[in-house]
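Hey, can you fold this one?
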Amino acid sequence: MLHISEEYWGGEGFPHWISRVGGAHLTEKAFLSLNCIGMLLMTAGQGVLRRGLRWRWTLSTRGAVVLLNGFLHLAGSIITRSYSPGLVTGLFVWAPLGGVTLWFEWRNAPRMAFQAGILAAIGLNVLILLLAQG
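Sure. Predicted structure:
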C-alpha cells in the first residue's frame, strides 16, 4: 500500500506522469484497477504457496516483479530527468524486498521453480506494460 500511495499521490501521480513522458494514456481508474489486480495476485500467490512446494515458483515471481518495478522507476526517472512517482518506495522498499527474496530463492529453491518464477515475472511485466498502454 505504501508504494501504491506514493505512485498515486507522489508528484503529479504515476498515471499523469507516465501519460506525459511515455505517451500512453493511463487513467487513474485503470491505474487503480491494475494495482488491485496486482495486490490480488500477490495475495493469491501467498495463499497457493501454503498449499505446497509445487507453488514455490510464485516466490521468485513476486521477488522479480517487485525488484524490477523498483528499478523501472529509477530508469524512468533517469531517462526522463524527472521524478517517477513510486521512485522512493521502489528503491527503498520494493528493490531490497525483491532482491532478498530472489537471493534466497536462488540459493534454496529448486532450479526449475526459480527459473519458472523468473519467466512468469517477465511475462507479467510484459502484460502490465501492454495493459498500461491502453
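The radius of gyration is 15 Å. Let me know if you want another pass with a different chain boundary.
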